[in-house]
Amino acid sequence: NVAAQGRARVPLWAHDPQAAEALARDRENTRRLPGLPLAAAVAPTSDISVVREAEIVLAVTPAQAIRTTARAARPHMRERAAFVICAKGIERDRRKFLSEVAKEELPQADVAVLSGPSFAADVCRGLPTAVTLAAHDEALARRLSEELSTKTFRLYRSTDVRGAEIGGAAKNVLAIAAGMSHGRGLGASAQAALIARGFAELMRLGRALGARQETLMGLSGLGDLVLTCGSAQSRNFALGEALGRGTSVEDATHGKLAEGAFTARVMVEMARAHDVELPIAEAVDAILSARLSVDGAIEALLMRPLKAED
Ligand SMILES: NC(=O)C1=CN([C@@H]2O[C@H](COP(=O)(O)OP(=O)(O)OC[C@H]3O[C@@H](n4cnc5c(N)ncnc54)[C@H](O)[C@@H]3O)[C@@H](O)[C@H]2O)C=CC1
Ligand SMILES: O=C(CO)COP(=O)(O)O
Q1: pLDDT at 307 over 90
Q2: pLDDT at 120 over 80
Q3: Across-strand partners of 85?
Q4: Binding site: what residues are annotated?
Q5: Which of 161, 186, 209 is the last residue of a domain?
Q6: CATH at 23
Q7: DSSP 136
Q8: For residue 118, what are the CA distances in angstroms to 59, 99, 125, 265, 267?
Q9: Maximal CA-CA distance, the chain
Q10: Which residues does the entry assign to the active site, renumbered to this chain (predicted)?
Q11: What ipTM score was computed for the predicted complex, to two decimals?
């Protein structure tokens, strides 16, 4: 809907033909964004060859589906079209960032990352939102941020692609921890401590992987961490909250896409490979893999040796 502002036609591809038909019929995503109709210019389809029309493709699938989607788009994408990754996560099987996945699958495209604090429903309602648009090429970042910004959806440009994607991936894992603390009734002080120590983990990992500090402290890092760790509107926070209340991992992860559940393990593996300690992310991974209970994780975090605040 944002892209439809000022454009006559915005094709919207869905991989599931029934979903595309339902969107075309109802002009609304009745399950995920009820009460928020599609703009008139949005044209749902399940034919991925529509990317042929596009100079800008917004890739908004689950993170683990970015590779197959990019691969399917490859024969149809124009030379130098922009492939803007809006998913937040890291490829689990090959331990790759999504910009790396896109570059491998779409050599003809210019890859960018759009990430930051923005619940889809807020954006669709026209509530004020500000996010990061990162591309290695400054001129591309500038062009995309100008073309995709509206009065209420403001894109700040960056050339730190890695920083933008680390923030978006890591905050989901940390939001699960924040949700657990809330669901377990640990109180507002614990919540604030978790966000601050979670941010320390995000910074440590980001620095080890070459991200810039200002990106990690910006919209796509700290900004999105604060949003996601502080709102039950977040699916990651809601997943953690359910676990904190005692719901089983199987029941809690069912139904809605919570990217942190897919990112936790690969984030911990990447950190270990770079000798970076991430106790909160490790606890989330251990709980999701049923190696640790929520109470066991709280106990383990409280028992950690006292150390300097870094
Ligand atoms: N919903 C939100 O507020 C925000 C979501 N994101 C990110 O956007 C990405 C997508 O999230 P949502 O749209 O919210 O999730 P969603 O669950 O609402 O929609 C995901 C869509 O992907 C489709 N899909 C599932 N498997 C697929 C596959 N193998 N190939 C292609 N498409 C497939 C589903 O049919 C569905 O239409 C996630 O990485 C999420 O972190 C980022 C910012 C905000
Ligand atoms: O990324 C988001 C907000 O910036 C959406 O958060 P959830 O995926 O946790 O709902």
Answers
A1: no
A2: yes
A3: 59, 113
A4: 15, 88, 116, 118, 120, 171, 224, 234-236, 256-257, 259
A5: 161
A6: 3.40.50.720
A7: S
A8: 16, 20, 11, 25, 22
A9: 60
A10: 171
A11: 0.98
What tens digit of pLDDT does each residue of 167-196 get? 999 999 999 999 999 999 999 999 999 999
Domain contains 309: no
Q: Examine residue 286 and state whether it is found in any structural domain, yes or no.
A: yes
Same domain for 122 and 104: yes
For residue 12, report the phi and psi dihedrals to the nearest 5 degrees.
-120, 110
Tokens of 106: 């779409």
Ligand 1 lined by 62 (C-beta under 6 Å)? yes
pLDDT at 303 over 80: no
Number of compact structural domains in the chain: 2
In angstroms, the CA 228 to CA 127 distance is 17
Domain shared by 192 and 209, yes or no? yes
**151 a catalytic residue:** no
Nearest to 123 by CA among 174, 186, 60: 60
**In the chain, what percentage of residues exceed pLDDT 70?**
100
309 alpha carbon – ligand 1 mean position (Å)? 36
Least Cα distance to 1 among 121, 110, 83 occurs for 121
Ligand nearest to the CA of 125: 1
Binned at pLDDT 50, 70 and 90, residue 300 comes out as confident
Q: Which residue in 96, 103, 171, 307 is the catalytic one?
A: 171
pTM, entire model: 0.97
Structure tokens at 43: 């044209």
144, 161, 178: which is the final residue of a domain?
A: 161
d(CA 133, CA 147): 11
What pLDDT digit, counting tens, does each position of 188-208 carry? Answer: 999 999 999 999 999 999 999
pLDDT at 301: 86
- How is residue 229 written in tokens? 């760790």
